Amino acid sequence: MNRMNSSIAKFTLISALLILSQTVFAQGSKKKSLAGLPVSKIELKYDESKPARPGPAVRIGVSATLEDGSVLKTKGWLDGKIKWSDFNLEVLGGTQGGTLESGTIIVSSNSSDTKDHVVKITARSVHDPNLTTTALIPIDSTQSFTASFNGANGANGSAGQKGNSGEYDGSMYDKPKGDTGKPGQNGGNGSSGKAGEDAPDVKVYVTTTTHKITSEVLLQVVVKDADSKTTYYIFNPNGGSLHISANGGNGGSGGNGGAGGDGGKGQWVKSDERKQIGGDGGDGGNGGDGGPGADGGNGGTITIYYDPSAQDYLDKISTSNKGGSGGSGGSSGSGGSAGVGGSGYNSGKHGAPGKSGSANSQKGSSGTNGPDVVKIKQPVDLKAFGIE
To answer: How does pLDDT run across 347-361, given as a tens digit for each residue?
Structure first.
């Protein structure tokens, strides 16, 4: 009997040492894997120290508990050694709600992607499909959003071309006076700016829902323009907000006048006993005039349809539908420099500098502001927009 008890004790000790050696191997070997280890459960965790918001990465990790109670963790945020390749991770609906990247999840910027305002992630062991874990990450709803439906700004006018410089011949001639340099060309005028575009008419549909985890009241808003561009927003009115703009585009500025071309240098001549005189310099070209500024676009019409349940939260939605600013006139082009007189026994006279063009003081007119925002109280069901 004593021998049998001794054998059982030895077997138990060997089994314990075997499990311990497997754990030590998993923690200390270069290949960090759960393959062949007695895993009893896995758990998916996320970093709760910062709110989960669209854009910034949320750190995640998986812990695996072995049958002896020891816990192994994934690389990265949990500071473990287990490879991520030991798990298949999936976001609810494929990429719906977010994108998995190297131990993190990037929450989708599209509010309609995050069903129930949470991101659901499932992790499954590749070695045992029965080992699964799920995490529900609530999205921080106290955010401020901006829905922009502004008209496009008008393009600025093109600048006038610079005038070509006058030419001259530098050869020596056997004559009393050198030729006068050619005058510079006048600069081109700047072109007119382009008008800003009118903003589209915008319709806004507002209702409420309840957060599935925190039970907080959330505002659901669909914003739609005349071209059927639709954007969905969901946020907590206690800290969150939405600004909707349908401003007219700004008018483009007039193009600047081109600079006048420089006058050509007077021809130089051989200076000998004939006392030859160098040619006079050419006059500089005049600068071009600036182009006129263009008108701004008109502001759009904004209509808000709100469900009775959202009436107390309408102050969390602000709007703007101003007309666009008129573009400024273009500046004048500078006159070209005077041509230098050519050398000789006596140098030629310098040409006259070109005159500057006229600056354009014609600023475009501002667009007309859109009408006052209309708010209509009626039942609102967002299912028509695919929002459950």
So the answer is: 767 778 878 888 877
